Amino acid sequence: KVLDGKSYKWFMHKELHEVPRKIKEQIMMPQEDLDSFVKTILEAERIFITAAGTAFYAALAGKFLISNFGGPYVEAILCSEFIDTLPNMPENSVVIAVSQSGETADTIEAIRYAREKHGAKICSIVNVVGSSLTRYSDEVIITTAGLEIAVASQKAYCTQVSALTLIALRIAELKETYSVEEIKKFRDALLKTVDIAENILIEEGKIREIGEKISNETNIYFLARGISTSAALEGALKLKEIAYIHTEAYAAGESKHGPIALIEEGFPCIFIAPPDATYSRLIGNIMEMKSRGAKIISVVADFDENVTEISDYTIRIPIENNKYAIATSIVPFVLTLQLMAYFVSDFKGLDPDKPKNLAKSVTVK
Ligand code: AGP
């Protein structure tokens, strides 16, 4: 597994190191492909987004990105729940489907149902050219991840979320939610995530250290608010899939309605704490756990002070202290969690590329 003359023990590690160039290619994607995709979305009365697994967590991030940038409400529904959630699908709907393989049986079933029974338009974000999903779609954005060998998706996820950020920004531009200058600043900030990802990878030893600290844990909570809840879900899934640790991701505000019952001295809680609108409320949730003895591990911006002060360990994300950088930082936060899961798996002597019982593409319903 060689990349740029450097050899990697596992495909997952090599593919994580491909993230900066892959997201750069995505961010530079042709404007025409983006425009017709966005036009179709904006013509619809109702917008749904669907996917499975990691792709669903990218979809959830997309739902938040579109609304955070002033776009329309998007309902996110797991593809395996799609038909049962929408027995009477509204007319003039668009379904955005997100998939690495474009062959996930539940995703195909959901979009065929939406298209054939209810006349919905299908806009897909898919990595494999010529896959079944591309054939059933009205609009397609091809992600630039390229061949992903590790079963647990990572560079595909990062390109999916980069594409969804572009979609959100284009919608904001068309709806004039922000001035032309501000849109440009958001786009520049998005492009800077390439360098941020690069820096995270250069400094990956720090993430490895935290990975070592949690590698003997048997249960871990991942808690966050808003868009970061999708990051928490993805971080928890990765650790579960490749390091076989029981993890649970929760919207932090919900943690006092149940998960808090398990907290005792040393119970590890990973908080994803970017300095966005959720920050001060998240601190309240951290304190609820900390005061009951939880070990607090937080993923924070480089310039963070308050969450750092109440955490046992922090992983610091090198983002700039401005609203443009903060609003476009989901990929760097998630890349960090994916890398951490990789290191934990490696510490435990496991095979992160082929986790047991999992398939790269699930073609059964
Ligand atoms: C492998 O287990 C992946 N982590 C899994 O969640 C995957 O993302 C999901 O099965 C969807 O696959 P797709 O992106 O190919 O549709």
From TrEMBL:
Statement: the UniProt record of this protein carries the keyword ATP-binding: no
A molecular function GO annotation: carbohydrate derivative binding
Keywords (A to Z) from UniProt: Aminotransferase, Glutamine amidotransferase, Repeat, Transferase
Stretches that traverse the bilayer: none
Domain of life of the organism encoding this protein: Archaea
Keyword Ubl conjugation attributed: no
Entry function: Catalyzes the first step in hexosamine metabolism, converting fructose-6P into glucosamine-6P using glutamine as a nitrogen source.
Protein name according to UniProt: Glutamine--fructose-6-phosphate aminotransferase [isomerizing]
Organism for this UniProt entry: Promethearchaeum syntrophicum
Lineage: Archaea, Promethearchaeati, Promethearchaeota, Promethearchaeia, Promethearchaeales
Residues of the full protein shown: 239 to 603 of 603
